[in-house]
Amino acid sequence: MPYSAIQATFEDEADVFIGNAIATFATLAGGAIGISVGEAALVSKLVNEVPKHTHSVTAESVISSGALILDKLTSSAPVLDGLHQAYGSAISTVMIYATVAICVSVLTTLGMPRFNLKSVSADKEHREGDVAGLSSHQDVAELGMDGEVKAMY
Would you give the distance in Å from CA 80 to the centre of its chain? Predict the structure, then answer.
C-alpha cells in the first residue's frame, strides 16, 4: 500500500488517517468483490462447458470436487481430457475478467496527479514553519500592549 503517496496527497494531517482507511478499505473490498466475481464466472462457465465435453460426469460433481481431484471422478482418459478442457475454458474466462479489471484500474491512474515526495515533504515543512511564525533564519519578537518590542529571542 503506498502510504507515503497518500500522505503526500493530503494537506491536513488529520485527513491522512481517513485517506489511509479509505485506501485500505478499497483494497480489501476490491479483493473480496474480485474473488466473488471470479468464482461466479468460474462456476457459471463450468456449468456450461462440462456438458459440452462429457455426459458421464455432471457439472455439479466437477464443481464440488474441484480441479485437483478430477482424476478421481473418472478413469476414462477422453472424459478426463474433456474435463480439463472445460476447466481451461472456465479459468480463461476468469482471467479475461481479471485483465479487464486491471486495465480499468490502470486507466483510472492516468488522471491522478504526480507528486515528488521529496518536494512535497519540503513544502510541508516550509509551510509548518510559516504557520508557527518561525523560520530557521528569523528571530521572534515579544510585543508589549503598546506594540513595542519587549524582547527578542
Answer: 37
